C-alpha cells in the first residue's frame, strides 16, 4: 500500500513537471528598456510584475539602457535594443529615422485603441511620413509642466495677497520688490530666484510669455532675434540688474527656497513637489506669469515615446505589453505611487492618477497642473540638437548677463552659431 502511494506520488510529480515544462515552453520573454534612474527602474519593474499577473504567457524583463539618443542608437547598432523601450522627447526624431524601430501603424489601427483619447499633437509627434513608429508615453499628467511655488508665510508677513493664475510679469516684478528684504548691503530674502536664466526650461518661461521661441520657421531664422525675444531676455536680466529682486544666474532650482532664502521660485514637476514635501513651509503653487497679449509658458515638451525594436523576435507580444501600458489604469497608479511622473497618455486615466496622489499634492500641486491641461500650442521641436543648441545659447547669455557684451551682440552670436544646426536638422530652410 505504501509502495502504491509512493508510485502515485511519483506519477503526479512527473505529470506536474510535464505541465510546467509545457507552460514554460509556451511562455515568451520580452525585454522592457528604460533609463537607469532608481525611480524609473522601480516603476518599470512594478509595471512588469503587474502585467505578468494578467498575462502569464508573457514574461517581461526590465533592462536599464538609458533613454538618450546616443545610447539607444548604440544599442540598435549592436543588436541589443530591448523589445519595448522608452525614448526621451528630444531624441525621438533621430531614433525614429534610424531604421531600428518597428512600424506600428497596422497594429495601432487594428487594435481598437481609442486614438481620440490622446493629445492630437502627440499622435503627430510619434509619426514619420504619416505612419506610427511609436506611441506617446505621456499626455495628461504632470510631465512638461513648469510652475511657480511661493512661500505663503512670506506673503502673509508682507501683507500680500497670494498670486493667481492671471498674474502678469509686471505684477510679478511688483510683488517681488515688496517681498525682497535687505539689511544694509545684504539681502535677507530674495523676492524670487528666476532672474538671468540659462536653463532651457526657465529661459522658455520668458520667451513663451512674450510670444517668442527658439525657432522662427516662417522667417527661416532663430526666433531669438525677434523684438519679443529681446524684450523677454531683457526682463530676465532686469530682475537682477535693475530691480534687484533675484540673485544673479538664478533661473531654477529648489535650494534657496528650501533654505528660506527666496519667496518665489519656478520649476518642473519634481522641483515643485520637493518644495511642498521638504520645505516645512506652507507652499502655494501657481502658473507662470502672463506676458504680452496674455501669452504664457505652456506644456514644454512633446511626449516621451514608447517604441518597439524592429528586430524584436516577439513583436506581437511586445505590442500587447505596449498597449497595456497605454490604456490600463494600473501603470498610471504605479507611476503616481513611485514618483508622480505621470505616464497618463490617455485622458480616461486622469482620475486614476488623481485618486492615487497623496493628499498634500492634491491640494496645491495637482490643481495647478490640471489648469494647464487645456493650454496647448506648437512649441519648439528641437529634436536631438536641443541640448547642444541651449549650451550655445546659455554660453552667450552668460556673457551678456556679466555685462561683457550687449544683448544685440549676444543674439547675433547665437544666430551665427545655431542657425547652421537648425538648417541641418531641417528646422529652418
Characterize the structure shown.
This protein is an alpha+beta fold. It folds into two domains: 2-138 and 303-366, 3-Layer(aba) Sandwich (D-Maltodextrin-Binding Protein, domain 2); 147-298 and 382-424, D-Maltodextrin-Binding Protein, domain 2 (3-Layer(aba) Sandwich). Helix content is 47%, strand content 12%. The chain has 19 helices and 14 strands. It has helices spanning 2-26, 38-54, 69-77, 92-96, 105-110, 120-125, 152-157, 169-179, 200-209, 227-241, 255-258, 269-278, 315-327, 329-338, 350-356, 359-363, 365-372, 386-401, 407-424; strands at residues 28-34, 58-64, 84-87, 127-128, 131-132, 135-136, 147-151, 181-183, 186-189, 215-216, 221-222, 264-267, 283-287, 305-308. Strands 2-1-3-14-6 form a five-stranded mixed β-sheet. A three-stranded antiparallel β-sheet has the order 12-7-13. Strands 4-5 form a two-stranded antiparallel ribbon. β4 and β5 (131-132) form a beta hairpin. α14 (329-338) runs parallel beside α15 (350-356) and α18 runs antiparallel to α19. The radius of gyration is 25 Å and the shape is globular. It starts with a helix and ends in a 5-residue tail after the last helix. The relative contact order is 0.16.
